Task: inverse folding
């Protein structure tokens, strides 16, 4: 009997979210979730949980666009200097920090999505191509 077939207590979505936001394995909270930027480790180094089972797909990109676009960019448009200053000033002053923010947010959101998928037990089908 392997670890996946043993009865487990129902995991909390909040636990999965918190562990994913910290780039940690949703199952144990100790092992690293990524081996490189956005590249999920196939197996947790701490508990051996198969991290490659969770089909995050485009969800992290969508939620990152939602967070950065709706919570940061939309309110920024209410500041008059955005419309009055030269585009040669506005574009670098806004795009460089937004790009950095997006690149910092994306792995955290991907971790949160994977943590949520772990909590609600959504996994790739065994016979699905990866
Ligand atoms: Zn683990």
Result:
């Amino acid at each position: 009997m392997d670890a996946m077939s043993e009865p487990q207590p129902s995991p909390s979505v909040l636990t999965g979210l918190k562990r994913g936001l910290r780039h940690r394995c949703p199952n144990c909270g100790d092992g690293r979730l990524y081996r490189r930027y956005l590249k999920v480790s196939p197996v947790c180094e701490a508990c051996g949980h198969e991290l490659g089972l969770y089909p995050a797909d485009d969800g992290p990109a969508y939620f990152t666009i939602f967070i950065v676009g709706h919570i940061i960019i939309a309110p920024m448009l209410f500041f008059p200097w955005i419309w009055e200053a030269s585009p040669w000033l506005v574009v670098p002053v806004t795009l460089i920090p937004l790009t950095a923010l997006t690149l910092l947010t994306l792995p955290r959101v991907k971790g949160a999505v994977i943590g949520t998928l772990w909590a609600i037990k959504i996994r790739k089908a065994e016979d699905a191509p990866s």
